[in-house]
TrEMBL record:
GO terms for molecular function: DNA binding; DNA-binding transcription activator activity; nucleotidyltransferase activity; sigma factor activity. GO terms for biological process: DNA-templated transcription initiation. PROSITE patterns: SIGMA54_1, SIGMA54_2, SIGMA54_3. The keyword DNA-binding applies. Residues 113-298 form the RNA polymerase sigma factor 54 core-binding domain. InterPro entries: RNA_pol_sigma_54 (IPR000394), RNA_pol_sigma_54_core-bd (IPR007046), RNA_pol_sigma_54_DNA-bd (IPR007634), RpoN_core-bd_sf (IPR038709). This is RNA polymerase sigma-54 factor. It comes from the Bacteria. The lineage of its organism: Bacteria, Pseudomonadati, Thermodesulfobacteriota, Desulfovibrionia, Desulfovibrionales. Residues 313-471 form the RNA polymerase sigma factor 54 DNA-binding domain.
Length: 474
């Protein structure tokens, strides 16, 4: 079969996401700090953007405003013809790529000078500093560095003495001797190989090792203490429950995780995007614009009619970008306000009474109420926080599944979690409530159908131990 060239006409339709639309969608899902960083970056790169002054506009600026309005009118028409914001958000439901994590963040306003400039000390750095100040030989210092290098973030040793001896080219006795010294560095008990060893080192340093009962309790009976097997221990050591309680209180003052205070994770500070206040019986929604500059077109537009050639193309592109950014920011804030207004309407019980009055809610409910697509609601509620009369919550918190009740109505899963937590906090510690009993109480008081395994799932999600571990003999 011979090869040949042919011409063919084909008519098709496709949706194209322009860079401007990509930027608009990206702005929707940015957190407040990320948005401030993005706006500041645009202010640096785009000559047509500037912060609007706080003072009133002077009378002689009228001409410039008119010129600015005429120049922008053409660009607004072009933007309107390219794409429609509401239609785009209504038709596109695919999630764009998540915003890449940033190595630096804008420091929160009002943070202390030390918080902005000083770095948080690490566990290995703290130990190396003590090793350097210790009176050790060069060989011992090398062994100490290997020991410190094998300590995990929780403060425990992750290598055996034999392995460290091979690394250092030293005898096992030399490593044991240096390990003994490192374990008595601050924090005391670091580089331990087990919880028992960690606590025993602390008991020795504090001078409590003269009590043989305390030493044996820690060395051989930590598991019995954890499972609250108190009576056999009292019989074995011939002590009463009051004496055992004193030993328990003393053991609880020790630190089984000596490296926890030097955790590598940095704290995350939350700045609310929205404030909800109650005033005159109604809830008022206020967007948090603190630190977010108000943008306007720069005076450089006055020179635009006099520019021609490649410079004019550059100016036109930057002008379009500036105009779209201002419009996108305004649309983002308007969408955030509408979503928050709808949440307050659906979850008014929460804002009045608290978490126990939280109702079931899904994205589609809010989307239908404000006339937008679910994907838009999902993006605008990502990494956004609201300050309420009951604390600061992420907007995603208000969306929770429903649990059916006997009368046919439903209650939110977060409300059920709050009720379970409340019941456990009010229980008798000597006779803690079982998961099955909690389910029975919820059925009696709220006519709520909830299985024992569901109670256990919610309890585990809240990091609450089982009834056997909550039981106290004192």
């Amino acid at each position: 079969m011979a090869l040949e060239l042919r011409q063919q006409l084909k008519l098709s339709q496709q949706l194209v996401m322009t860079p401007q639309l990509q930027q608009a969608i990206k702005l929707l899902q940015l957190s407040r700090l990320e948005l401030m960083e993005t706006v500041q970056q645009e202010l640096l790169e785009n000559p047509f953007l500037e912060e609007s002054p706080e003072s009133l506009v002077p009378a002689d600026a009228t001409e410039k405003a008119e010129l600015r309005s005429e120049a922008q009118e053409g660009y607004d028409k072009e933007l309107a013809s390219n794409a429609d914001w509401e239609d785009y958000l209504g038709d596109f439901s695919s999630t764009t790529k998540q915003v890449a994590s940033r190595e630096t963040e804008i420091p929160e306003e009002g943070s202390s000078f030390e918080a902005r400039l000083s770095s948080r000390p690490s566990l290995d750095g703290h130990l190396f500093w003590q090793l350097t100040l210790s009176r050790v030989t060069e060989r011992q210092q090398g062994i100490g560095e290997i020991i410190i290098g094998n300590i995990g973030s929780n403060g425990y040793l992750h290598a055996s003495v034999q392995e460290m001896a091979e690394m250092a080219g030293a005898e096992v006795e030399e490593v044991e001797e240096m390990l003994h010294r490192v374990q008595r560095f601050d924090p005391v008990g670091v580089a331990a190989r087990s919880p028992q060893e960690c606590l025993l080192v602390q008991i020795e340093v504090l001078g409590y090792d003269r009590d043989p009962v305390l030493v044996e309790l820690v060395r051989d009976h930590l598991e019995d203490l954890e499972k609250r097997r108190y009576k056999p221990l009292c019989r074995k050591f011939r002590i009463n429950m009051d004496d055992l309680r004193e030993y328990l209180e003393l053991i609880q003052t020790l630190d089984p995780m000596p490296g926890a205070s030097f955790g590598t994770s940095e704290p995350h500070y939350v700045a609310p995007d929205v404030f909800v206040h109650k005033y005159d019986g109604e809830f008022v929604i206020i967007l948090n614009d603190d630190g977010l500059p108000s943008l306007q077109l720069s005076d450089i537009i006055d020179t635009l009619p006099q520019v021609s050639g490649p410079d004019k193309d550059y100016f036109q592109e930057k002008m379009r970008s500036a105009s779209w950014l201002i419009k996108s920011l305004h649309q983002r804030q308007r969408t955030l306000y509408k979503v928050m207004e709808s949440i307050v309407k659906y979850q008014r019980g929460f804002f009045e009474e608290g978490v126990t009055a939280l109702k079931p809610l899904i994205l589609k409910d809010i989307a239908d109420d404000i006339g937008m697509h679910e994907s838009t609601v999902s993006r605008i509620t990502t990494s956004k926080y609201v300050a309420t009369p009951h604390g600061i919550f992420e907007l995603k918190f208000f969306f929770n599944s429903a649990i059916g009740m006997d009368d046919g109505s439903s209650v939110g899963s977060e409300s059920v979690k709050a009720l379970i937590k409340q019941l456990i906090s009010e229980e008798n510690s000597k006779r803690p409530l079982s998961d099955e009993r909690i389910g029975e109480i919820l059925k009696e008081k709220l006519q709520l159908n909830i299985a024992r395994r569901t109670v256990a799932k919610y309890r585990t999600a809240m990091d609450i131990p089982s009834s056997s571990k909550r039981k106290s003999a004192f």
